[in-house]
């Protein structure tokens, strides 16, 4: 019993020192990582809607969204007219959380989409980082072309392309649909 | 003291260093016990990240840093960590250093972090790191453990560099250093997306994309292993002849 307690205490001591060390490194790098993430987000905003000049950040009112990680921008052109939205949403993938950014026009039609931070499997779920992967979502969410939030809504070719990475697809699709519904609801209000 | 005596003393010192245990621990990882090409450890990241030379440098240096730090700490704590829980103890130490590397790369080299992706956290379970901790650092003093880590780290980096050099040369006809804020160094053109060999306005070769894929990596890796084995056999046969 005493021996086991000593073993446990020794392991706990190693863990404690590790935590202290990691906290110190996190303290040094946190600011810089945040700055880098903001830069990536700003660049992606411009990439998703090339006509967008001004991006006004808004938080979802719904408690279903994490206010620090999930939000949207009202996008305006150089004449200060609203031309759409860009949305940052956290989706649940095979390797944990995935950060997805997408752009819509004023009627919430998907204009562009990008997978940012993720830990998906290289060669399988990670292929969602490619622009070609996101083509299946672009132009959808209109009365004639509903947003494909499940695999059965895809064409055979698109369905085949996500074989082996269904969890990644479901995570992205459900996350984006959740954000689209909330966006629509908030702007109606 | 004459110059000749000084030179002889210097040569003696160099010879005694070469004969020393520390030097042997340091040099063995380069070729004789190269972790990737001879011990065949850490093959997964070796094949996965060697698409670009810049990835190989990043991964090699990261793994070397973790290897040195973990070997130092495990060698220091070998009497403190109870034998029953040594593997969880080592994993906590290794994972901590890997997280430090991950945070530093994310902060200062975000493009490299994106490029290496999941393979940085996976250094934690890289057989080379845990293998050296278990097979060497927990049985030896701090100085040989450091030399072993540096040698193995350099050996791993050299193996990654060799494979990535061949793969990127064949697949991209140049080297992409944009992850480090540099540019694409093409063999033939300045355009990173359009490196190709053109003769009389006819495109002869624009890179074999198979070598950017795991299958291409395995093919190159197999050829290198075959070359090393052939070289070893030749050396052995020469030695046998000399013995006879």
Rg value of chain A: 20 Å
Query: What about the largest sheet of chain A?
Result: 5 strands, antiparallel
Estimate the mean pLDDT confidence of chain B: 86
Q: Tell me the distance between the termini of chain B.
A: 45 Å
Sheet-strand content of chain A, in percent, reads 15-25%
Rough outline of chain A: globular
Count of strand segments of chain B: 4
Q: What is the distance, rounded to the nearest whole angstrom, between the alpha carbons of the first and last residues of chain A? A: 63 Å
Task: Output mean pLDDT of chain A.
Answer: 89
Report the structural category of chain B: mainly alpha
Domain count of chain B, please report it: 1
Number of helices of chain A: 4
Put simply, the count of helices of chain B is: 9
Largest interface: A-B, 24 and 26 residues
The class by helix and strand makeup of chain A works out as: alpha+beta
Range of helix content of chain B: 55-70%
From N to C, what is the helix and strand string of chain A?
Answer: HEEEEEHHH
Description:
The complex is a heterodimer of chains A (189) and B (244). Chain A is of the alpha+beta class. Helices cover 42% and strands 21% of the residues of chain A. A five-stranded antiparallel β-sheet of chain A has the order 1-2-3-4-5. The radius of gyration of chain A is 20 Å and the shape is globular. By secondary structure, chain B is mainly α. Chain B has one domain (21-186, 194-243). In chain B, 65% of the residues lie in helices and 5% in strands. Chain B contains nine helices and four strands; from the N terminus they run ααααααααββββα. Chain B starts with a helix and ends with a helix. The relative contact order of chain B is 0.14. The model of chain B has no long low-confidence stretch (mean pLDDT 86). Chain A binds chain B through residues 6-7, 10-11, 14-15, 18, 21-22, 25-26, 28-29, 32-33, 36, 40, 95, 119-123, 126, and chain B through 48, 77, 80-82, 84-85, 88-89, 92-93, 95-96, 99-100, 103-104, 106-108, 110, 117-119, 121, 214.
